[in-house]
């Protein structure tokens, strides 16, 4: 995957996240498409593509949603670095790595975004932020369980290196 393709994909995912996902709400949970697909791209393709995905997708979300510029990119960049580490740790079970990484890092992404929004804008009146972000983390994990193993299996099959069998 070229870096240009990662940038275009992140922009399209940001557009879908800001337009379509509000209709895909389940209770209080709303999916974070840029985050989920960024974790999958980072684990499947590599850290460079994941960082491009996070930076461009985060800037697109910030511009379109009129958030402080760079706040979403910062949170996504932190999470893509964590996804790369988790992808290397769980290299033997690569198709399951996006599921584990998405659940752990979705909480980190939401809490960092919450902290940045509270610091850069007026403080948000929430007594227990973890109970607010947990349904979204579960929703993101379900999306990663559906999309992640499929994308990683397709990517690994297409980039299989042929070896000489002696």
Molecular structure report:
The chain is an all-alpha fold and 166 residues long. The protein has one domain (3-158): Arp2/3 complex 21 kDa subunit ARPC3 (Orthogonal Bundle), CATH 1.10.1760. It is built from six helices and no strands. Helix 2 (33-44) crosses helix 5, helix 2 (33-44) runs parallel beside helix 6 (129-158) and helix 4 runs antiparallel to helix 5 (97-120). The relative contact order is 0.15.
User: Architecture, according to CATH?
Assistant: Orthogonal Bundle
> What's the quaternary structure here?
single chain
- The SSE string, one letter per element, is HHHHHH
Q: How many helical elements?
A: 6
State the secondary-structure class.
Answer: mainly alpha
What is the C-alpha radius of gyration, as a whole number of Å? Answer: 16 Å
Largest sheet: none
Number of domain modules? 1
The CATH topology annotation reads as Arp2/3 complex 21 kDa subunit ARPC3
Q: Provide the CATH top-level class.
A: Mainly Alpha
Beta-strand percentage?
under 5%
Give the uncertain stretches in residue-range form: none
Got a strand count? 0
Estimated helix fraction: over 70%
């Amino acid at each position: 995957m070229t870096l240009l393709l990662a940038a275009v994909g992140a922009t399209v995912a940001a557009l879908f996240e800001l337009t379509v996902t509000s209709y895909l709400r389940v209770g209080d949970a709303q999916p974070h498409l840029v985050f989920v697909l960024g974790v999958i791209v980072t684990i499947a393709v590599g850290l460079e593509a994941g960082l491009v995905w996070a930076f461009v997708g985060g800037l697109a979300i910030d511009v379109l949603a009129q958030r402080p510029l760079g706040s979403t990119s910062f949170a996504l960049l932190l999470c893509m670095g964590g996804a790369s580490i988790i992808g290397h740790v769980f290299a033997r079970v690569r198709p399951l790595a996006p599921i584990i990484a998405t659940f752990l890092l979705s909480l980190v992404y939401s809490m960092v975004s919450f902290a940045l929004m509270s610091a850069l804008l007026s403080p948000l009146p929430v007594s227990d932020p973890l109970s607010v972000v947990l349904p979204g983390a579960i929703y993101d994990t379900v999306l990663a369980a559906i999309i992640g193993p499929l994308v990683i299996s397709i990517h690994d099959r297409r980039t299989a290196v042929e070896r000489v069998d002696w």
